[in-house]
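Now for today's protein:

——
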Amino acid sequence: MRIHIIFLALLASMHLFSQKASKVYTFDVPVFAYHRFGDDRYPSTNISKSDFEKQLKYLKQNAFDVITLGEAIRKWNNGEVFKVKSVILTVDDGYLSFYTVAMPLLKKYGYKATIFIQTGTVGGGDFMNWDQILEIERSGIEIGNHSDGHNYFVNLKDGALVETFVLDLEKSARIFKGHLGSIPSLYAYPYGEYTKDMTDAVKGAGYSAAVVQKSGVLCEMTNPYEIPRFPMGGPFATLEGFKNKSGMKALRIVKTDPDSPFPKSNPPALKVEIEPDSINLKQLQFFVAGTAVDIGPVYYMEDMRFVVLQSPERLKSRRTLYTITVPSLDGKAWHWYSYLWIRPEIKE
């Protein structure tokens, strides 16, 4: 089945999109997400020690500015200019392999990272203990919150979701305060799953930003509580893939419809308004769960940037990404955007 992506002026009459805010400055900062290092027992979330070092060496040889997520948020809020080649390295869960494998390499190349700790597993099994976490924090690693229970919060309904999520936020905050003397200002949603109620709760609890698991690039139009990250585990954890993503630009999105991760029909349709930019919309590409979909002919009007996307088949996984990539007009860069669909009824 061929998918037709059509840019329609008629969508404007549906009142789906609000007035665009004027931009003060622009920036593109790829964010990467790691889990395990040099641990072949879990290939889907692991990167080998040699591949991780190759990535760090590439950043050093090409004069990248490697900053923490907190530094990026402060720059953003203060209107500071980012270096053209900037990246952010983040790590989830707090596995011991970060301490034994990744940390020595980060020290070797003089880089920092942001690590999101799941408080409920600290000191158990393959996880770092609090002494190790305190040690890496003192050496310059930024600590973020990755919940206490690492639950499937989106499986809960309405008030139960908010109540359970807020209680978990409060519990993890108390634990961080007790062991580190402070509460993190950054959050990573368990499994990368989130709803507007959850983003509102994180913001209300005083966090300055939160990250998700959909791929993409941080830019001035990103929702700070839905910051995308490129995964660096399993088949994605290669030097070539890292090089490609480190030069990626954001595809700037004004608004989407729906603005909810839960599909009302299957396969779901996604309407997107794209910020006019120096991009070649005639070469727009569409991917469903990483698989390229034949989009057929593309029609657009010069003064409109509306796109409608729909998978040719029903979504069968708990989490599925719709991804759009578009080259720049000069062909020197690619722009990337992903939208996350969640089907809570599917267990993992």
Notes: The domain at 9-16+253-342 is CATH 2.60.40 (Immunoglobulin-like). The two ends are 29 Å apart (CA to CA). Confidence is low (pLDDT under 50) at residues 1-23.
